[in-house]
Amino acid sequence: MPVVAIVGATGKTGRWALKGAIERELEVRVLARSPDKLAPLLADLGGQSEDLDLEKITVVEGSVTDADKLETLMDGADVVMSFLGMTNPPEWVVSPGVEAVMGALLSLRKAGKTPPRFLSMSSIVLGDSAEQGRRAWGCFVAWLVPKVALKACFEDMQAAEDYILANRKAMGLSVTILRATVLKTSSFVKDYTDPVKTYKLVPVSDTAAKLSFFVEMQSVCEAFLDVATTGEYEDAEVSVFAA
Fold it and tell me: Where do the NAD(P)-binding domain residues begin and end (predicted)?
């Protein structure tokens, strides 16, 4: 099983990747500015389960802007997954975080080490997935959300995508962008050991697939974990929809 490092593991989406990675018995590392938040978070995610134990993960205290802590987190990992999202609009978080992660990965490579594969979360409508956005959301919503309602958020994610596409090959890094449709959460709690998939991955080249407006956050994290362990979509962009 791969060693998985998670950035943004205490966020609304990333916490489900943390739960899933532990349930699948992966070796998990987490970057956390406030490690004391992890124990109550795991207790909340696990309910009465004792499986989500803080002792099952390695915690590196620090922020995504701390290059040394990022290198410590990722050194020896097979995959790093980022679930960064804007928390204080209009302050950018995703693009600076992606640049910091890729900078740390490059430092590992220059040190003669094998950098992990990087999976970065983004959104449909961006880049060459614009048509998917129109199909899934309708033309008006696909224009309104990134241009008006969540303009700063989508500019931040677009800048992150632009940086990845412009630099991953030159840096010699393996970076995959997973673009989600509109995220939602519910009282449903996914069992990440269940082989039945609750998502589907759709390349922009697939113009026939049925595309959902919403996808569960938990399903997006299921997709991340599956891509992390199968190695699919290396150096590619793929979109995540409900099954």
Answer: 8-186
